[in-house]
Structure formats: C-alpha cells, structure tokens
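The following block was generated as part of the benchmark described in Methods. Ligand: norvaline.
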Amino acid sequence: MDRNRHFLSIADWTPARLREALDLADRLKADPDAAGRPLAGKTLAMVFTKSSTRTRVSFEVGTHQLGGQALFLSSRDIQIGRGEPIADTARVLSRYVDGVMIRTFAQEDVEGLARHGTVPVINGLTDLLHPCQIMADLQTVRAEFGADLSGLVVAWIGDGNNVANSWLNAAAQLGFRVRLACPEGYDPDPAVFAAAEAAGVVELVRAPADAAEGAHVVTTDVWASMGQEEEAAERARAFDGYHVDAGIMARGADDAIFLHCLPAHRGEEVAAEVIDGPASRVWAEAENRLHAQKAILTMLMGTIS
Ligand code: CP
Ligand code: NVA
C-alpha cells in the first residue's frame, strides 16, 4: 500500500509533503478558491461510527467548496453497523466514490479500508490518532510563530490520547518539541512515544506546571474521549489537578497560546478564563480544520487541470 495515497497518520507523510499541505492550507485560507474546483464531479464518502461536529461539517463544506460532493454515512444507517466486514465495505465504496474519510474506533479498520479499497482514505479520528486535527493545529501555530517550527515547545497537559499521539507524530516529522504532563497510567501510545523519543523531540513529566514551563503552545483535551464514557468517574479522579488555568498559562512563554481540539469541558481540563481568554486560539484552530482538510482533499483526490 502506498501510504502517500492516503492520510492515515502524520507519520506516513514526509516533512516536505506535510509542509506542502500546510502551505496550501494557508493559500486556501487567504483565498478559499485558490485551488479552483479540483474535486469537480467527485464524491467523498464520510463514514462515522462516532459523533462529530467539526470534522463532519468541515469535510462536507470543504468538499463542496472544491467542487465535489460529500456523503454522510453514519454507522447507524449503513451495514458496517450490522457487522459487514470493513474489507467488503472498502471494495464496494471504491466502486462508487473517489475517496473515503472515516472516523471510527480501531486504527486497524482505517488501515483495512485503505488496504482493501482502491481510493484514498483519510483518517478522521481513531482511538489512536487524529491527524487532521493536528494539521489544523500546525496551521494555527505557524500563523502565530512562523513556518519554521524547529524551536517550538508544545506542552500537552492531560490524557495521552489520540490527539496527543498525533502531536508526537508531527513533532517527530517536523522537529519541534512536545513536553507532556500525563497522570501515571494515561501515557501516550508506547510505539508512538518510542518513535518520538528516538527522534529526540519528547519529554514526559507528571506535573502540568513542569510541562508548561516556557512553552509556546499549551494544549489539552477532554479527560474521557469518545468510547470511554464508562470510565468518566475514574478518569475525573485520575485527572484531578490536570487543568489548564491562568496559573499554568503564566508558566508558558510570554506569547504562549492555548489550543484545544474541542469539544471542551470548561472547569475540567481547561478553565473558562483560559479558553475564553486572550491567549486562546481555539476558534481559529477550529476554522483551520476546513482549510487544512481542503488541502489534503486536493492533494489526494484532486484532478490537476
Ligand atoms: N475536534 C474535532 O474533531 O471535533 P469533532 O469531534 O466535532 O469533529
Ligand atoms: N480525544 C477526543 C477528541 C475529540 C475530537 C476523542 O477522541 O473523543
């Protein structure tokens, strides 16, 4: 499988290809029509087995802006939800559509879709990764600190989850540093962490204040991700103290910004004074999902005319 034909993980794309996508995302932000209509006559299937606001709407609107059409396919309605194998779904969808975006639980299902289908597959979030989110986050960070990310320090406070894992992949590819503060038992994926460690770009600490020290970006996510609802009470206890508040932001660099992929829980992982305060860039970050994904759609599905 040619992993450049898909966007399954940030780790699959070279630094040059990631930068090409981010540069195109910037051009599309400045001019939404900068790429023309590269998806004219094309269809993106969007398979969701988890909820979404931003991913669904930004992919649907982005595909439309690029001249194509998007199909929203909830697992509640299609046969995947009744157990049709992912391989069969991949073979069939490939005969109708020009690309598939999928949000689901197992990374292996996204990989299987790419392996068994013949069209590009985009990972719209799994339990392991959230690569599209980090492309939008990188676009937001570049707007603030410039395109050379080499001196950047990103502080991740909280759960070593899918978003954290994709931050680590991005750091390994692009050469900035991530300092994570996770409670014991909630560290990032071991293989993703090992790759970032081998690249010399990661440090794991336990105290949020230590992670935030001098950081340019302070970021966090919910304590319980989708699919972990039953662990919510246990997680609330484990993550007590893992809040981003004004005190944590004050530890960061003078021009530090706050990011959150959203949805956010004010009063839990982030204080309202931070997410609704002057350092917050979360609305630009959410907007950038549209631009970054249009760049990815253009690169994977676009017809060069
Ligand atoms: N950040 C993000 O992926 O949001 P949604 O779950 O609303 O798509
Ligand atoms: N970590 C969160 C991200 C939501 C966009 C989740 O997986 O639910």
